[in-house]
Amino acid sequence: MTVNGELRSTQWFGATGRTGMAHRSWMRSQGFTPEVFDGRPVIGIATTWSELAPCNVHLHRVAESVKRGVWQAGGFPLEFPAMALGETLLRPTAMLYRNLLAMEAEELMRANPLDGVVLLSGCDKTTPGLLMAAASVDLPAVMVTGGPMLNGKYRGTDVGSGTAVWRFEEDLVAGRMTQEECVFAEGCMARSNGHCMTMGTASTMASMAEALGMQLPYSAAWPAVDSRRYETAQRAGQVIVGLVRQDLRPSAIMTRAAFENAIRVNAAIGGSTNAVVHLLAIAGRLGVPLSLDDFDVLARDVPTLVNLQPNGQYLMEDFCYAGGLPAVMRELAEAGLLNADAMTVTSAGIGTNVADAPCWNREVIKTMADPLQPAGTGTAVLRGNLAPGGAVIKQSASSPHLLKHRGQALVFDSPTDYYAVSNDPELDVDEDTVLVIRYCGPSGYPGMPEVSNVALPRKLLLRGVRDMVRICDGRMSGTAYGTVVLHVAPEAAAGGPLALVRTGDWISLDVPARTLTLEVSEEELASRRTQWQPPAPHASRGWTRLYCEHVMQADSGADLDFLVGASGHEVPRESH
Ligand code: FES
């Protein structure tokens, strides 16, 4: 990225007099020789490393590999921290802070003497947060995700992080597992550095970054502890220097064609529903027209090819050894379902990158002719008087017999209210009941947490029921499964029709017809609306207040309204 023919970093390090001296002198306190200020590309390495984000805890090491590559290619690497968002610890939800990470990283990239950036992410929200930031700054950027953990191993079987947690919990409630066995299983499930190794949100978003062209081929799947993870990171360091010299920026890579590729890849990998909300937010930063309905329309022709938990059997380590994402994209390309010309960080079209990608295991990566699940069974977008702004359901994680279902609502205003009674043997619920959990949307919780797939009532679990229809304005972990209608928009807290449902109302879900209907007359709903009161604000100050006042609905990506779009990378005026 040049300003008057010079790299933008030259505005800092190439300056004469007091200003340049200040910029260089304090940097030399780190022991750099003067040659690093000779006009070479300065590459920021944004790392979301933190011991509070265990999925990202090894990113320091990944950064060292990136630095090697940057030095090799004649650049000057500088690592800097960006807000680490750990899915498992942050309350009320890491999603409350995705936009804060995006805002923080965007400002740091713009305000510092950087010509390009390498984005180090891993846990769920760190990948979209950094991509949103890079989109709004539009400096050349390469993503390196931290890679998945090794497969979990428990008593001779593979166990997937996240996915197994739900099963263990059900087994505990139903008396099939003891508390001691659960504690033992915890350690077996997470046995190396890396993010969740199911096709949960982290693996999905890593795959999305690769499908968008923002990370190197194969980069999504190398396990965090595989030497090739570090080789890829070193390669990314070399590549970013070249991208700066070519001035190839995210806006030229993350085009509408790239988003179409990502949506189809998400269907093929059986990816997380969270990709919907994140891709919408990233597209919003770039001005790429993308709607909720695109996810339904584009995915309809795409079968699920990847046999990974939670939809299938295997885990990311198996996916890597089977050929990783390029093998999947090659299948799509050969079926005419990939925009092959979409540009990538390799400086080649994505079709070229995957043209010869081999598959080594057809049990893990299926073919278009013999898929895991047929076309049209991916994420569906529902509409109706209960979700005028849309809702989504992951068909491949649902029970086929519930995809067309009519039942009476049992309504709770929070997951807490539900769990207070869920073990009650007298709870008036059966397998036909539709559980409605609301006030879990972007402003309602706040942060739109992954609470929608509430565990089934104990009474039903003891009878052997394993699934029931649940409807929520929140999200669901990508590692989870169940017939759960998610992201209902507008959310209850914004006065959406979900707020007007009462226990006993009939609701019909018809996924093949893409409808979600509350069988209550317009007159009755209008009458109920006159009695509805918006909930009290969650916070009177700070980030939560800013977030709640500006967050958009799920069908717009749940970004903040004033963060949509880009501000570019113009060099700010001098500081002293
Ligand atoms: Fe970090 Fe699953 S908890 S990726």
By secondary-structure content and strand pairing, the structural class works out as alpha/beta
Taking all Cα atoms into account, the compactness measure Rg is 24 Å
Q: Which parts are unreliable, with pLDDT below 50 for 5 consecutive residues or more?
A: none
Gap between N and C termini = 24 Å
Into which percentage range does the β-strand content fall?
A: 5-15%
Shape: globular
What oligomeric state best describes the polypeptide chains here? Answer: single chain
Q: What do the pLDDT scores average to?
A: 96
Care to describe what's here?
This protein is an alpha/beta fold and 576 residues long. The chain is built from 20 helices and 16 strands. It has helices at residues 10-13, 17-28, 59-72, 98-111, 126-137, 163-173, 179-189, 201-211, 227-246, 250-253, 256-269, 274-286, 292-299, 316-322, 324-334, 350-354, 415-421, 458-462, 522-531, 542-550; strands at 2-3, 6-7, 42-47, 76-81, 116-121, 141-145, 152-154, 157-159, 379-384, 387-394, 404-412, 434-437, 470-472, 484-489, 506-510, 515-518. The model has no long low-confidence stretch (mean pLDDT 96). FE2/S2 (inorganic) cluster binds at residues 55, 87-88, 123-124, 162, 195-196, 200, 202.
Which helices and strands appear, and what pairs or packs with what?
Blueprint: E1 2-3, E2 6-7, H1 10-13, H2 17-28, E3 42-47, H3 59-72, E4 76-81, H4 98-111, E5 116-121, H5 126-137, E6 141-145, E7 152-154, E8 157-159, H6 163-173, H7 179-189, H8 201-211, H9 227-246, H10 250-253, H11 256-269, H12 274-286, H13 292-299, H14 316-322, H15 324-334, H16 350-354, E9 379-384, E10 387-394, E11 404-412, H17 415-421, E12 434-437, H18 458-462, E13 470-472, E14 484-489, E15 506-510, E16 515-518, H19 522-531, H20 542-550
Parallel strand pairs: 3-4, 3-5, 5-6, 11-12, 12-13, 13-14
Antiparallel strand pairs: 1-2, 7-8, 9-10, 10-14, 11-15, 15-16
Helix pairs in contact: 3-9, 4-5, 5-12, 6-7, 8-11, 8-12, 11-12, 11-13, 11-15
